[in-house]
Design a protein that fits this description.
The structure holds two protein chains of two kinds.
Chain A lengths: L2 H111 L9 H18 L3 E8 L2 H8 L1 H18 L6 E4 L4 E7 L3 H18 L14 E8 L7 H17 L5 E3 L6
Parallel strand pairs in A: 4-5
Antiparallel strand pairs in A: 1-3, 1-4, 2-3
Helix pairs in contact in A: 3-4, 4-5
Chain B lengths: L1 E3 L3 E6 L4 E8 L3 H18 L2 E12 L1 H17 L3 E6 L4 H13 L4 E4 L1
Parallel strand pairs in B: 3-4, 4-5, 5-6
Antiparallel strand pairs in B: 1-2, 2-3
Helix pairs in contact in B: 1-2
Classes of the chains: A alpha+beta, B alpha/beta.
Chain lengths: 282, 113
């Protein structure tokens, strides 16, 4: 009776013993696994830490490089903007200096061409234009006329009204002669003190007389009070007209001398009149 | 200190901290403008306030305006100098170019008469 329970007990002990061994092994395995996992975790963590630190350094480095680049970029941008402004300044400056020189040049050439008081052509440009038209009319075989006007008793006018009134009188006469000329090729110039000369290209003596009469009438209409003229209460002019068919071998000086001679006759004959050589031959 | 030729005259008056320009400045290239630049740099070395009186400077060529532009940039970079440009309404280039210099240095004061 006793041997059966004993053997059963022994079996049970053996089974428990085996179970305990198995648990021990399992425990040992688990410890190893735990240790391995922990060591692995530590390793991974340490690697992550290192990587993180490296990344941090890299980020800092990149941030610094970026700041440097940004600063450089800002400098370059500022320099570019400065240069753009300078180029713009230079361009505008060049243009305005050009314009300034151009104005000066025009002013200088006007000074050289125009009579300061009356702002019509001066003697110099008259001489040039007369030579030019002489050649042109000789080429085209067309007549050329000269109308020479002199203000009557101008000295007396000046003595009576003063020199500034004399200047105004000359300015008004210059303007009125200028506006009496209709063709672009006609020119009036101040010839001397109170003398004006008109060049009429492509105009014969008859045409020139028409222009001279118009000039005389317009000056009369100005009604500038004289006070010391024996021919009129207003300012008048005497006029000499010469006309010719220019030839290359001739000289415009002869035409001028002729007009001057006729003007002298007009003065001699009592002033306020037009003298023309109506028999001028072309 | 002054630079004087037949055409132009540039001089510094330390009492009024003013550099005066007069006449026609038509020097050939930036190298020839170096003495003018040095005069200007010496003027800002002496005072924190500087006036450039350009009213009687009738002409300034392209090298001259370049030199002036670069001087304005130098003054701006220095940061501590107050600068006034005095110009004339009667001189065409001044009415155009001085305003452009103000774009380089917005604190630059312009006085026109």
């Amino acid at each position: 009776m006793d041997s059966q329970p004993e053997s059963q007990l022994l079996k049970e002990i053996e089974r428990l013993h085996q179970e305990a061994e198995a648990l021990k092994r399992e425990n040992s395995d688990l410890r190893i696994a735990l240790l391995t996992t922990a060591e692995h975790g530590d390793l991974i963590e340490s690697e992550l830490h290192d990587t993180n630190q490296q990344l941090q350094v890299e980020v800092t480095e990149r941030k610094r490089a970026e700041t440097m680049l940004q600063t450089l970029l800002n400098i370059l941008y500022k320099e570019r903007s400065d240069l753009e402004i300078i180029v713009h300044t230079l361009m505008e400056h060049g243009d305005s200096v050009d314009m300034q020189w151009c104005d000066k040049l025009l002013e200088a050439s006007d000074l050289a061409r125009l009579d300061g008081l009356t702002q019509i052509a001066n003697r110099r440009s008259f001489d040039e234009y007369l030579d030019q038209q002489w050649q042109q009319m000789a080429r085209d075989q067309l007549p050329l006329s000269i109308v020479l006007c002199d203000v009557d008793y101008f000295k007396q006018f000046n003595d009576t009204h003063g020199h500034s009134a004399g200047d105004v009188c000359l300015q008004r006469i210059a303007q009125i002669i200028s506006s009496a000329l209709k063709r672009p090729s006609d020119m009036v110039a101040r010839y001397g003190g109170e003398e004006f000369v008109v060049i009429l290209p492509h105009t014969d003596i008859k045409g020139a007389i028409v222009v001279a009469e118009l000039i005389q009438a317009e000056i009369q209409q100005l009604q500038i009070l004289h006070g010391h003229s024996s021919v009129s209460q207003y300012v008048t002019v005497s006029i000499g007209i010469a006309s010719t068919q220019p030839i290359f071998s001739g000289s415009p000086k002869d035409l001028l001398d002729e007009a001057d001679k006729l003007l002298y006759i007009a003065k001699q004959q009592g002033r306020n009149r037009i003298m023309a050589d109506v028999e001028a031959i072309y | 200190m002054s630079i004087k030729t037949e055409d132009h005259n540039v001089w510094h008056d330390p009492n009024t901290s003013t550099v005066f320009f007069r006449g026609f400045l038509r020097l050939d290239g930036m190298e020839e403008y170096q003495p003018v630049m040095e005069l200007l740099l010496s003027a800002i070395g002496q005072s924190p306030i500087l006036t450039l009186n350009l009213r009687e400077l009738e002409f300034l060529n392209s090298s001259g305006i370049s030199m002036l532009s670069m001087f304005v940039v130098k003054v701006r970079e220095k940061g501590s100098v107050q600068m006034v440009l005095q110009g004339s309404n009667k001189v065409l280039w001044q009415t155009k170019s001085l305003k452009n210099l103000q774009r380089l240095m917005p604190s630059l004061k312009l006085e026109f008469t």
